[in-house]
From TrEMBL, chains A, B:
This is Homoserine O-acetyltransferase. It comes from Marininema mesophilum. The active site is at S158 (nucleophile), D321, H353. HAMAP family: MetX_acyltransf (MF_00296). Substrate binds at R227, D354.
Length: 372, 372
């Protein structure tokens, strides 16, 4: 019997692997800076079944505004569901996929919106500086509590890719293979500049109140501008040309000074949308973690650090990426210890940086093959 | 006697052609929108001597934050003095160089900070929308009053290049030859997006007060962010790598969360500096003029408009320019009526867009030759 759309749906439905989301308390941690967070919770999504030999775990690391819902469920699909699902490029019938919201985030893991047990109030601006390495240490502790001692693979894009590289250097004995995507050993000065434009927009918003804003009255305008800044660097002009060109938003073309281009209304909408769901202090915490991240710190520089990386690596870069330029991906590939399994995949996409969140058929097959 | 440094200085001093700055009242003008400005003043710098046959006038058009002081004097050098001076690539002993602050500007020509004669108060937010074509019409009227009926050449970069192209289309009978540099027939959606990030930063600043701010209490924070946004697009990452790399500003490295990268302090300083000298309403007026500028409007599109351009043209583009990408310069060159004298000069510079303000030895010889 040929498969109809309906029977295919039914089949997919039946095969669907259930997502589980839990909060794991990992107790107190001491940060790289020496600051101590007395109680840290980590929100974790797991999809699939951990094999009895616990050798099929794949860790996923999210980007700046991502969260632990990489896969999600049918009703609320995660940000990487196109890549990871039952029968997908990362097949959840084969792999036990774990995603955690990072330390300093605002989607369930301890961060600036969490209650400081010592004061009974939200940390807000008193939340300490956290590094990408701190984020990785927290993930490691969480995995230990979950009884997972080794990871078959680790995969992540953008800020997530920074965690992926750090995992390979901080816990080489636990890591099978890694897939950093559209990321960097350290940010370019231009990327730091983009981040600072967003930062200045947030801290200049009078609603920010030096980070002591009320949760009901957050600095949405500043955060929206920061997101607009981000969005322009996540995409490309070719895409904007194709989608919007110089078209005006309908209905307000009477007076040229009131004219709004579609690209403008699109970005303003994206800014507003993020500002409604994301915490500004958390955004600042993660920006600073990215800016200050340098895998070469304390390891004799980037070159020496990458030479220490021993596990097989699949580096994926996007040629049109203006935030994490392709030369940074080539550098990572070139400087790690040579292994026949290592691979550099260069994808061309008018989505630019965001291709790692959208171009599943471009990046998926290589990921599938490299994991298997 | 061989020339010593001193005698050379003395010689230069002697040869120096004096700058003259004057304000020309051109009366009332009706804008493209139909709005009327009852009294318009234009500040004009002239350097050199107008020939008796009045056939040696060269008009210079400035960019977004430029002004009429293109040449300036020895004590206060203008923004294009490296190109234009006695004995320079644009030789003020040969050419009579005229530069005007544009309509809507804030450096002497009528704009939002000017007094509206009908109210006795500054226009501020009530200053009407002006187009690039309006700016050109005002320049034309001003030149008529100065007794200059024809221009040997017109030269300008960035927004100035938009005026240059419009001159060639609006007043072909008055224009000898034109040199648009690092400019566009119309902005890309990405350039519009960059402008809107700056715009949102300005209008979100509470000091902006919907444009009705007091001159003593302007929205400096918002304007500074807009300038930071601009600066990143005016330069290149290669330049930032070379100048700042990931170096931290000295003296504040104790706590990573307080760390400020040199690229950040540089941009913040540039932002602050512009905010102290430029008017926010004027900035918004000029951004909107640029966004809405389209040489194809009312002329059957860009292709048809460029095909109408009859005068010889030297198009100069910078390969690393991310704001006015090189493909826009190539398009202009390709679509204008073919003439043997036409030329496309592609310059490679790590200054990116700002090369037109800095790389005089790269762009100067071609300009000199094309004008002669």
């Amino acid at each position: 019997m040929p498969l109809t759309a309906k029977s295919l749906d039914a089949k997919t439905e039946k095969r669907e692997v259930e997502e589980s989301v839990q909060v794991v308390s990992i107790g107190s941690i001491t940060l790289e800076s020496g600051a101590i967070l007395p109680e840290v919770d980590v929100v974790v999504e797991t999809v699939g079944t951990l094999s009895t030999r616990t050798n099929n775990a794949v860790l996923v690391c999210h980007a700046l505004t991502g969260d632990a819902r990489a896969v999600g469920d049918m009703g609320n699909q995660g940000w990487w569901r196109g890549l990871i699902h039952s029968g997908g490029y990362v097949n959840t019938e084969e792999w036990f996929v774990i995603t955690m919201n990072v330390l300093g985030g605002c989607s369930g893991t301890t961060g600036p919106t969490s209650i400081n047990p010592e004061t009974g109030e939200a940390y807000r601006s008193s939340f300490p500086y956290v590094s990408v390495r701190d984020m990785v240490h927290v993930q490691k502790r969480c995995l230990e509590i979950l009884g997972i001692d080794s990871l078959h693979g680790i995969i992540g894009g953008s800020m997530g890719g920074m965690l992926v590289l750090e995992w390979g250097l901080l816990y080489p004995e636990c890591v099978g293979r890694i897939i950093p995507i559209a990321t960097a050993s350290s940010l370019t000065p231009t990327a730091i500049a983009y981040n600072d434009i967003g930062r200045q927009a947030i801290v200049s918003d009078p609603a920010f109140k030096e980070g002591e804003y009320d949760a009901n009255c957050p600095p949405v305008k500043g955060l929206a501008i920061a997101r607009m800044m981000g969005m322009v660097t996540y995409r490309t002009n070719s895409l904007f040309e194709k989608r919007f060109s110089r078209a005006l938003q309908e209905g307000i073309e009477e007076n040229p000074s009131d004219s709004v281009f579609q690209i403008e209304s699109y970005l303003r909408y994206q800014g507003k949308k993020l500002a409604e769901r994301f915490d500004a202090n958390s955004y600042l915490t993660l920006l600073k973690a990215m800016d200050t991240h340098d895998i070469g710190r304390g390891r004799g520089g980037v070159k020496a650090a990458l030479a220490q990386l021993r596990c097989p690596i699949l580096v994926i870069g996007i040629q049109e990426d203006i935030l994490f330029p392709i030369h940074q991906q080539r550098e990572i590939y070139k400087l790690v210890q040579h292994r026949d399994e290592n691979q550099l995949l260069e994808v061309s996409s008018e989505y630019g940086h965001d291709a790692f969140l959208l171009e599943f058929d471009e990046i998926g097959p290589a990921i599938q093959k490299f994991l298997s």
